[in-house]
Amino acid sequence: MKKWVYLFEEGYREIPAERRRDLLGGKGAGLAEMAGAGLPVPPGFTITTEACNAYFAAGRQFPEGLWEQVLEALHRVEEKVGRRFGDPQNPLLVSVRSGAKFSMPGMMDTVLNVGLTDETVKGLIAQTGDERFAYDAYRRLIQMFGRIVKGIPGERFEHILDRYKAKTKGKQDTDLTAEMLRDIVEEFKALYRKELEEEFPQDPLEQLRQAIRAVFDSWFGKRAVDYRNFYKIPHDLGTACNVQTMVFGNMGFDSATGVAFTRNPATGEKELYGEYLPNAQGEDVVAGIRTPLKITKKASQEWAREHGISEEERRLRYPSLEERMPETYQQFLEVAALLERHYRDVQDLEFTIERGRLWMLQTRTGKRTAKAAVKIAVDMVHEGLITKEEAVMRVEPEQINQLLLPRFDEKAKERAREKGDLLARGLNASPGAATGHAVFDADTAEAWGRDGRPVILVRPETTPDDVHGMIAARGILTQRGGATSHAAVVARGLGKPAVVGCEALQIDLERKQFSVNGRVIREGDFISIDGSTGEVFAGQIPTIDPNLAEERELAELLAWADEFRRLQVWANADYPRDARKAREFGAEGIGLARTEHMFFEADRLPYVRQMILNAPEAQRLMDQLRAAQQAAQARPDDPKAQKALREAERAVRTSKAVKAYRKALDRLLPVQRKDFEGLFEAMDGLPVIIRLIDPPMHEFLPRYEELLAEVVELRTRIEERRKIKGYRPRKGEKSIRQMEEELAEKEALLRAVNALREMNPMLGLRGIRLGILYPDIIRLQVRAILEAACNVKRRGITPKPEIMIPLSADVKELQIVREIVDEVAREVMAREGVEIEYKFGTMIEVPRAALLAAEIAQVAEFFSFGTNDLTQTVWAISRDDAEGKFLLRYLEEKIVPENPFQVLDRKGVGRLMRMAVEEGRRTRPDLEVGICGEHGGDPSSIEFCHEIGLNYVSASPYRVPVARLAAAQAALKERAARIETR
Amino acid sequence: MKKWVYLFEEGYREIPAERRRDLLGGKGAGLAEMAGAGLPVPPGFTITTEACNAYFAAGRQFPEGLWEQVLEALHRVEEKVGRRFGDPQNPLLVSVRSGAKFSMPGMMDTVLNVGLTDETVKGLIAQTGDERFAYDAYRRLIQMFGRIVKGIPGERFEHILDRYKAKTKGKQDTDLTAEMLRDIVEEFKALYRKELEEEFPQDPLEQLRQAIRAVFDSWFGKRAVDYRNFYKIPHDLGTACNVQTMVFGNMGFDSATGVAFTRNPATGEKELYGEYLPNAQGEDVVAGIRTPLKITKKASQEWAREHGISEEERRLRYPSLEERMPETYQQFLEVAALLERHYRDVQDLEFTIERGRLWMLQTRTGKRTAKAAVKIAVDMVHEGLITKEEAVMRVEPEQINQLLLPRFDEKAKERAREKGDLLARGLNASPGAATGHAVFDADTAEAWGRDGRPVILVRPETTPDDVHGMIAARGILTQRGGATSHAAVVARGLGKPAVVGCEALQIDLERKQFSVNGRVIREGDFISIDGSTGEVFAGQIPTIDPNLAEERELAELLAWADEFRRLQVWANADYPRDARKAREFGAEGIGLARTEHMFFEADRLPYVRQMILNAPEAQRLMDQLRAAQQAAQARPDDPKAQKALREAERAVRTSKAVKAYRKALDRLLPVQRKDFEGLFEAMDGLPVIIRLIDPPMHEFLPRYEELLAEVVELRTRIEERRKIKGYRPRKGEKSIRQMEEELAEKEALLRAVNALREMNPMLGLRGIRLGILYPDIIRLQVRAILEAACNVKRRGITPKPEIMIPLSADVKELQIVREIVDEVAREVMAREGVEIEYKFGTMIEVPRAALLAAEIAQVAEFFSFGTNDLTQTVWAISRDDAEGKFLLRYLEEKIVPENPFQVLDRKGVGRLMRMAVEEGRRTRPDLEVGICGEHGGDPSSIEFCHEIGLNYVSASPYRVPVARLAAAQAALKERAARIETR
After folding, report:
1. Quick check: is B342 catalytic?
2. Which domain-ending residue is among A189, A214, A245?
3. Does A457 lie in the same domain as A363?
4. N or C: which end of chain B has fewer CB within 10 A?
5. Residue B33 belongs to domain spanning
6. What's the domain count of chain B?
7. Does A843 touch chain B (CB under 8 A)?
8. What was the ipTM of the complex prediction?
9. Contact assessment for residue B789 and residue B675, using Cβ atoms and an 8 Å cutoff
10. pLDDT band per the 50, 70, 90 thresholds, residue B397
């Protein structure tokens, strides 16, 4: 016969530690271990997760032997406690609680006080001498049983309770008298009868059986299923069911109940941290009706100071457990220390004191803030409790990110609170802090954002139509929606702070404003949101960038991580300030400096436009000249060829386009050179990968549609005004002649922009293709890079430039560009008299480049995976279009387990990467391979990069620490797996 | 010592047949073989291609031993002929001719009459007794030597010649007297001296040495290099050099020269076909100054009939060789038959008759028209000359295509000629015939083309900016450019007829017209072009579609091909008429029926638009309803859930969008069903793969930019008119109110279109993604397919529908859609009471689908490679943007050897295909795999599809025969390779 049921101490003795959570669930395993360690645990037993699965497999029937084993275990508990289940004199009461392998707080069901009936309630009165307590316990059982086991809507019980409360003076639960509670019990039983057409079961065993079934059933309740889907917990784990002797913290003032952490879960300080309530049940602590008291004296005193409460008053009205029950407190301290040592981690404890006696109800690993997680891990290493490897494995890389996100200056935030600027609190859906102008629609957000104004997008709720505005905004604030709402999911995806479900806001989209508690915020007014706390403020609160040096423990943890990791961590940085930040965060190189971002700066955009608008014509003439030169050289005595050459020379010499093109390039050279000097200085001695121009040219030009609208408008206006005889412009209006001049200019620009428009710019004329059509642009950039390197080298700095070509798909493209690069480099170095070592490499961001890696590595000295574009092409999904239009739906329908633009798609994109690494290295064993897509900062993706043997990942500066930790964890996991398979 | 030089008969004896062309070149091998067979060949020798390569390797120096071997061989020739080189009494004269492995007509150089000097010319006079002949030969030598060996511009010689000709009565070469020619020789020598500051070499051996060098040098002449680049002939083959005794067809009327084919190269008829000129040299035949005569009497008589020449006159003035020299003719007939038998193929012969004696100068495989190629191959099988396999391998698949292209009705064309409508002749750059309105710019071509009007785009020359117009046009006509011009290359790529370089046209773009010989064609006038002949006609000439049944030999050849091929050939066809054509051409199934083409038809486009514009809102409401239903079902006693369900139901019931959406779907069902019935009927018993809706929805809507312009124009007009006090619309103008109504309507449409616009539609919401968002559209299509199948089955037809899903990238997408498909199919079959077998499969057109083929094959029963999209994504190249903007440049720079959209890129796209086939079949061994991209009709791509084991290729109907032949050739090549490696 299969063993379905384990007494707590049996669980400890009979089940090996590594199987305990699987079989007994988290709560059951904790109880078993506490019982096994001889700690004071109310006796009880656990029904295994296997029993739960067998129950569902049999079509919601108890498997064979289960009930008998329950009865047997119950009997053993009766013996231990010295009470009998259903005994009218001295009844045993039990709780029936779910407990799965992974904590699913509030998602599954619990029934307390099982065993109370019209008969046994009398025994309870006899035992406790407290009629009020006994009837209160009984009405709680009927209420919970009715609601949870039988599905009677909870408000129907509440309604009755409210009626009685209304009769009392204080209108509170605690004001109900014993008589009232007895009447309530009767009314509850009547309600039960009416709802279900059956009596509330008076057989305690029947109560138990049904409660166990309800716990099992709750595993597939909607909330639980949704929760598991969201947190990706498998549905076949099943839940265990814990049946445990009830102990009562509400048996008078020598009783209490409480929760505690063995260390401070907010700061990580090594101090017992917790609260208790005298004469109360566990649910009262959670319900928050009474103010819980602090456990330690120190914490109690601090609390009183904060609330302006005198020491006398505190000792009288708010004494700590340490002061109130010094002996029990000492015992609890010892138990807590023992459990932390046993588990080698911070414990989250639940306890009850019943008439002076301490009972431990639960121990589990304590959840903690990012800050605490780091401090605790580091402290425990220093205490000799855990190893450095364990410390590194203990902290979630994503948590670190929180520590390093911009946050509000605490003092400024405090001042805002004092000024009454705290408007409301919503759900802290995506961490970080942001401040900006409130705007109420996505288009405005986008427009203002384009103008460089910081905005917070405020919406009742967001839909895919708002995504372009969310991208442009610094933060998102919504009135409706929860942690899995569109706004929350998208904001986390975008890495932007978001506060959602802030129901206090009254948003008026028509008038573009919201009001909250009578205060009105209009479009353009400054607001500030804290996505880590859910707070919403009026006005501007300055944000501060965290500093790694000040986060001492984090720096220490990361230093340990660096010892373990094999992957290097580089950073994506376009400007010297970003490079410096990245280096401060531990970056060992720049994996991607995008030169085109520099082109957008106001001081150079006009020249960039001049370059682009003249490039096609100028290049055409120069190509003709080159062809004519070749022809004339091949046929030196052919007069036609000589004549054609002279004509081509003249065409180039007299062309306005060539002149403007060359002038633009000349103007851009010194500014680009200066950009690169700054990067080399910041990264002195470390490699800097500079990517040559990548985006399609029209990105630098005015938008076609806007120009078109302007042209049509002007044209129509001219037409209309011409119809008016003797038309004269009014004040402020332009003359027709002026308008016509303007029109001609705009039409010319429109034509030029139109010539550069593309159906699918992602797949169009960009990257290396631009370089092949317009080699002078590449020459300009390479010259700027090499001249910058020469300049800084003369100043004693060691530049290590690596020149990277985007979007290559064939080795021949790279051969052509490499010749240009090497030629320009030789020229510059000869002229400057300085020798610079540089590398030449390519992005691998087109599937074909990955497929032909062996050939491409003949010319490229390094590869850098551009996984953003590679994901777009491998999936044939344009990120711009998909995220708003259908990717969300794909996530909902689980067609994709994660957004492939955030978490690397190992099966598709990853497979190509693996092939490219292997085949590229076969050609060139010392090939340097890295990744510079956004995935370079994602822990799961970093793990994969480690697996396939990349040299480095390159992440945005703020994610460098995350990447360092993730890389170390990948290495440690691999080591563990190796040891296991040995 | 390496042997560089072979006497002709030595070449036959000493070099194995399969090495002969490599070493001796085509001409040299032919001479060797003719000499070896004992045919009358003027004695001579060949300098090998190896010598040529050694010459270049040594920096244009004769390799060691070469000159000595030349002298030795020359000596042997002297002995044979009985004359001595440089002998003042009886001089030997030789020709020095290039001859590479592959024929490069006119691309390389020849020097004749080498060995003539001031001394030896006298010997020639003595030999021939013809002073005029001798000086003419001498002046030809100086002229050719000066021009070809020394690079003196040819016109300088012509200029002198012209001066003398002007003095004569007839103004012709032949009118020059012996004295004149002697003077010309002196003037030529003087010119030579003046140009080069040296004397014309009087040492015959020096002439020979320099002529050989010139032949070698011409291998890297510009024309030759360009030619090889165009035809993809390697540059390292080198040319051989043939030195051969001169024979003269111009030694009086018992001499002649001519060319002949052993069969008619135009029709393939088995009859000697050729022309000769009495008393003439080879170059005279080519120059076309005198009208050549026919060789056979029959041909001569026919020619006379055509030209209205009486039999008497013919016999007198235009006698055939058969009549003029019956014996020599007989000898020639025998030689020709012997050579054809020897080479087992049609031979193209050059011969000279010197004083009654026949000399064979050249034999080579005869070029022939497509029609002739097919007939000759088939006839030769029937004659027992070659095997069926050889016949199948003899015909280029692309040639077949010509036979099946639309062509002009010959009689109509003849009538047009008679009417004087033949305007001009240009270069036949891309075969096929087209008729349409002349238009002079690409935008008009596109606009008219969109309206369904046939147009011919006429341009001075084309550039990438014209490509959109070329796509829209039926044919292309240019004034300038050659076979490798932009117009020619692009037209061939597009498979459109083109006549280029038609210099007779005078195009006036300003006035949108062209004139030719005084006749003016204006925009909109009909013209007709024949891209196979280069003819340009005024007016409309009806085109006819060829019929395979009438092409008896072709049908026979294809039937043999069918015996050998392993690949099936299916067709891409959207309409029943195309399906019927495909079946007639031998298609064994429909590999791709695009349902969306059907959506564009005028009778349904309004409903399609209605469907699209209402789909987002309707689907949103229906999704809400579905969610509410699930929630209500899960919580039957939750009043909130019930209320939400009722609200969702009401929303769907009252929504205009839902109503319009459903109505549109209802309207589309019967028309789609009818479409499918037609396809099933046409393909009775054969598989029909129907692809569900694929393109982005906005393709069915008006263009955004046009709508935007209309809206802005209206808005501005309203604004302007409002400014006018007391404004009243003039006649024909709308009132402001009317304009406002129109504006509101257009604005609504603009918003809807805008919501569907995408940055990169190629990578956007299309294909299966549409199906997942709007499952009702899929349901509609599947219902139409299954109902159609049921209907035709009841009529005794066997429908074999296969339902194909486009753009899938993950197996989960397919699972979702497959459930819908199967559910609808079950429903329809149950309702109709008919059982239909259908398959479910997917396109593989996204790299990820290929990478995950093993998983995808779990759900898909067939794969069809969509290599158009796969090429776009593997290369990250949008075809729309690239072909105009940079792909041409990539072809020029040889970055891509061929346009990857025409010839499958085996390394990139092909590698993914190979992986997908292997891994897909590992999951599902009977997986049906085919290709439906354009590559399915390209012979090289078909060969690759055969190699990787596809089941079928699917090509456009007109290319089905091409594909049948290509598939057979692939199988035969594989067989040959297997035999070789054994």
Report:
1. no
2. A245
3. no
4. C
5. 5-245
6. 3
7. no
8. 0.82
9. no
10. very high
